[in-house]
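Section 5: illustrative case.
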């Protein structure tokens, strides 16, 4: 299987195979790695106001700026495996 196929399977498994709710830190890491792997570096403006969830997600993704998409995909797959206890 290709890295892209493994990445897509991990995204599907993240919805079904992770039995315990991950910590907020782990959820943000999952989000950021997925976005970096799927879309690359973040674009757009940082959310303002009191949308703390959107701000946290933006910040988590922004921290990965410059990380190659392939590396983000591999880390995402590893994190899903760890959380699903494969």
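Designed sequence:
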């Amino acid at each position: 299987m290709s890295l892209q196929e493994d990445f897509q399977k991990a995204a599907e498994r993240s919805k079904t195979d992770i039995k315990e709710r991950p910590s907020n830190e782990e959820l943000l890491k999952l989000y950021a790695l997925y976005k970096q792997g799927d879309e690359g570096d973040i674009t757009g403006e940082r959310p303002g106001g009191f949308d703390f969830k959107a701000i946290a997600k933006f910040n988590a993704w922004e921290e990965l700026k410059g990380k190659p998409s392939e590396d983000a995909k591999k880390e995402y797959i590893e994190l899903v495996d760890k959380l699903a206890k494969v």
